[in-house]
Every structure is written in C-alpha cells, then in structure tokens.
Amino acid sequence: MRIRTKLMIAVAVNIIVFVGVIFFGVRPYFIEKSMEQDRQMVERRIASVTETLVNRKSTLERTLVDWAVWNDTYTFVQNQNDKYINSNISEETLENLGVQAMVFLNRTGEVEYSTFRQEDSPLSKASQQTIISDITKRLRPNLELQDGVYDSEYGPILYASHPILRSDSSGPAQGTLVMLEFVDVDFLADLSAQTKIPLTIQPAQYSETKMTLQNDGTEVIVPLDTVFQTTDFEVSFIVEPTHYQNTISMLRLGMFALLVLGLGLFLSLLWTIHHVVIRRLIEIVDELKQITLERDSRLRLSRDKHSRDEIEQMAMSMNEVLSALEDTRAEVLDRAFRDALTQLPNRLGLEDYFSTVRGRHGRIGVIGLDLDDFRRINDQYGHRTGDSVLIYIASRLNFYKEAGFVARIGADEFMLVHPGWTLEQLQPVARHLTKDLKDWADVNGVKGMAVTIGIDVFTCAEPHHTYEIMMGRLDVVIHEAKMSGKNRVLTFQEIEDGSHYLQTLEMERDLRHALEHDEFELYYQPIVSPRPFSVRGVEALIRWNHPSKGQISPGLFIPVAEQLGLISDLGRWVLEQAVREMTEQVKRHHLFLSINVSKRQIADGSFLDSLEHVLTETGFDPHRLHVEITESEVGGNLYELQQFIHALKAIGVKISLDDFGVGTSSLSFLQSLQLDIIKIDQNFVKGIPENTFDRALLEGLYQTFHTLGLDIVTEGVERPEQLAFVLEHSSSLIQGYHYSKPVPLAQLEHYLKQTVMMYD
Fold it and tell me: Which residues contact 730 (CB under 8 A, 6 or more apart)?
C-alpha cells in the first residue's frame, strides 16, 4: 500500500476517532458534568435555604436576648418598673423588631404583659389568648433558649423564648420573654426573595431532606426540625435543571458543526498532503536510493531553491550528516568534560581527575573560589564583562596550579586541586588570586567585585573520604565565609568546631537519632481548679535527654525540628506517647489530657491520621483530649484551620487556644474558630497585681471570655497574690509553678495521689 493511500486512511481514521471520542467520551462527560452541576446547584439551594432560615432564627434570637437580658425588663417583671411599657413597647417597636408579638411571663409562667401587632394582621383578644396559651404549653422548663414553629388555627407561628435576666446575664430568672413571628405569605415572600427561590411551607411528612426528580426539575423538601428545636413543618421548592438543558442544546449544535468541519478538513488535507508533502518525499526517496546504491558520500540531495519548508530543511540536514558526523562526535566528547567559555575541565572532569589521584596521594590541597554577587556584575556591566572576569580567573588559576588541576564547577565557581599541598602552600595562592582579581577590577572599572575563597586539606587515607565528602566540606567553608560577610579567605580547619551550619547538620542528625532511639521523654504540668481544689487536667510537654549533652531545651530543638521538617514526627511521638501513658490516669482521676499541635501537622494532615489510629488502639476517650493551637497559627490559612477544628470536633476533641496575647488573632477569629478554652499567656500575669495596666487588661479579658462562654486557663501563676487576683476576677483554671512545675510521669502520679489524700 502506497504512502498516499495510508495517509488518506490515517486522516479518515483520525477524524472518525476524533468525532467518536467527542460523541462517546466528551459528550457523556459534559452531560454528566452538567448533571453534577445541577446536583451541586440543588445542594447550594438547600444550603442557601437552610442558612437563610438559620439567619432568620438567629436574628430573632439576638433580638430576644437583647430584650430578655436587660435590667429594665428584669425590674419590669418584678413590678418595679411602671414606665417600662410606655417607654419601650409600641406598635412601632414590634414593627422595627420584625416580630408580630411579645409576651412577658413571670416566674410562675403567668402572662405579665403581652402585645400583638394590629396593623398587618389584627387579632381579637380571644385569638391572642389562644395563641399565648398554646405557646406557653410548648415551653419546656429548665431550658434557656427555646424556639420552634407550631401549627396554630391561624397558620404556622415561629416562636422563641429566653429567661429574663439582668444585663450581666446573672439571675435568678424572673420570668420568660417570648417573641412571635407569623409564618404567613409575607414571611415566605421575604425568605424567597433572600434565597431567590419560590418557597412553600407545609405540614411535615419526612424526617430528613428529600430530593425528587421531576420533569420540570428537582423537588426539594427540607424539614424545619433541622433548624428549629420543635416543629411540625417542612419547606419545599423546585430547582430547574438549567445546566443540563443548556449542555444538551450546545452538544447538538457542536456535533453537527464537527461533522461538517471534519468532512471539509478531510478533503482539504488530502489535497494539501499530496501536493506539498507526498510529491517531494517521493523525489527524496528516489535520490536516497541512488546515494545508497552509489555508496558515495560526496553525493547530495537536490535542492529546491524556491522552497524553504521543513522538507527542504530535512534535505539540507541530510546533506550535512556525513560531513558533520565525526565533528559532532568529537564535540560531544569534549563538551562532556570541558567548559566551553574558559576551556577548563568541568565538574565531570574534576571527578574523573579525583578518582585518578585519590589512591596515589595521602592528602589533597583544595581551593574553592566563588565570585560574590556575580549576577550583579552581569546585570550592571553586561554579560561580556562577566565572561571576561571568568576567563581572567581561569587564566590566573592555570598560572598558579603548577602540577595541579583547575576546573570550573559552576557558573561563578572554580576549584584548584593539588595533590600533596599543605595549608602553607595554599594560602599564598588564595591571597594572590584575591589581589589579582582586585587589580583587574580596578583596571577595567568594575566596582564592588569581590571573591570568597575556601581552603581545605583533604585526607584521602580513609576509605569514606570520597569525592562527595570533599565537595561537601568545601561547600561548608564557602557557606560560612559568605554568611560571615563574603570577600574573605577561610579554611575548613578554622570553622570545623564552630560552624553554625555544621551545628545545624549535627542537630538534625541527633534529632533523627533521638527519634529512632527513644531519647525523648514527656513531662506533665497539672492544670488546677482552685475552688474547690482539684486537678482537672495535665499538659504534655516534650523533653530531650541527649546521651552526651544532657537535657536540651525545647526552645533550642523545636525551632530546628520545624526548620528541618521533623516537627510532624516529634508531634506524632508526643501524641502517641502521651495517650498511652495517661490513659489509666485520665480514667482514675477524671482528668483531661492537653496536647500541642504545630502548623505543619495541621497542613500535612499527619496529626489527624495519628489521632484516629491511637484513639482506636488505646480506647482513649476523645472527650478527655484537648488539642492546643498556639495563637500564631490563627494568622495563617483560616479556612484550613477551621476544617482541622471541625474534624476534631466531629471526633469529640476539645480545642484550646494557647499563649493568647502574644500573637495577632482578633476576637472575631475566636468566634469563627469555635474554640472551647482560651489559655492566657503568662506575660499578662507577671505584672499582677502591681501593674495597673496588666490588671485592667486581664479583668477585661476575663469578662469578655466569660461572656463568650469560653473556659479559661491562666498560665504562669507563681505567687499567692497572683492567684488571689485571678480568683477574685474569674473562675479560671490555673497552670503554673504555684501548684506544680512540669514533672515526669512518676512524679505526676505521686502528686495526684497526694492531692487526693489531702483534699479527699
């Protein structure tokens, strides 16, 4: 079969395959995608309706709490405020509040006062009394905030109630305030306008959200008991399948257009391929056959002087193949081991040289040269000047190398290697190189040129002293020289015992060794409730017992672990070890266990994976586990943090915000994060009670957190007068040296037994 026929078949098959892929692959994908979008639209509509109902309920509850937790209301239901009604309640008041009725019940549940809006839906006194009687029967005792929708003879009515308290939320309650909204046409119209969906309300038939496909869309029924405490109603609406209809119309038009386009493309390609490609290829094939037959490398393909297309370029390239093949081979070999600009050997050439001399000499002298800010020279003076600098350095290195070896190992990095040389022989060469480069820069007007030089005498006697070790030591020297100011000469022997870089590498090695060989230990600091005294919980704190250096402070190794990415491994060890050690203590003494978590553990998901595993393995009660997030974490990815907290809440774990006051979080973040406990940093307590500002600030924080319903732990309490101040202004838990410093597990067990005996 000739190539022309093959190409025609290939083009036809490709067009058919393309259309088939569109019809059987892309088309179902877009249909499924559109259906998925419609499903997502339904879910968004459900979420929108639910959120709107929740917002409507929350608005009513906030209004209710504002009126119920108020000194004027409190005194009114005690018959001590005769001016309350005239001063505060009118038809306009109800309209502004957006409610149809307000009912004030005294402590015995009797109606102290009630008022209904008469402008929109006037009701007789008897009807009002009937509604009030129905509502009061539905209110359950000992529940603070209640809400619901009930079916009255006048239609659905939304109600919410709250005990009447003083403005500071103190009691005892002197009655109950009830607010009502009629779920009428206007109410539904308002909700429909907010959600942009026509809504209807009807008696409840289902206990959970139900979606039913119909011809005109998806009918959705949302039970109101997902929003309100008690209700016998559900909301229904219909979501039209707009994405599916649009996609079907688009695909029909697109498939027709593809068929027409495919036919035209097929005919056009046939003509083009024959006249532009096949005819010229046949000529080239015939000429190649002739060259092969003659076996004469001097023969060349004929050229079409009027054509400059790819086929003509292919013919030109084939003409150059024979003459260029040997030159190309030689050039490839040369480039593999030599730098094109300076003509010095490159890194591969250096490695090959090292392998040759390593077994013949006991030591090797090494000079590493690195230009400082070479990019600035290229940018400021041009690449031609930069190339001149490199060529000059190469010439000077060749001048000084004697029987040694010189290589360019990077863009602005050079090495001089000389077997047998000592530091006394290497250092003068380094000084000469520095002076030569300075003189060249002065002559050529290049300002600010400097060079960093590292020197090492490398012993080759040890088997593990390899090429990689030699290069690594030289990198350390140059790194330290640049960190200490650049433009200097430094030897490896000068920094061998004091390099911060080497110390970091040593710390990393020791940390990995410590994790593998169980060098860490957990200390526990009690968290105490002073009145009445009881140990409520403990916080697990990691300690490192280094076999040769002794105790290493967490302030030293934790930052290094975070920098090196080992903090997740440390956090996993702390979690698993603390849960295993404290399982029995938590049960016996009714304690909670507090664990710290780092930002990296939240980001990589390792904490949640480890938590689920250890809880399943040990049977530890998740309600007894507190996870502490430092305040600095709040300034990061708030959505990611919220998802993490939501996952912990689903398990039953409580969330603490540690070190409050040293970070940048705001009170609005505290609400959005659904925290359980705030741990006030010890810096707030240090100046108590002497510092007036600290006292006022701490009092305000206590009042704010108590109002938000958050538990508090005050850290750093060390003196009796600090404890007295905390007890006077809050019901905070205490964590500090006044009760106990962090102690090992054995001492903690002794401490717990002592406290039980002392206060039993």
Answer: 702, 706, 712, 714
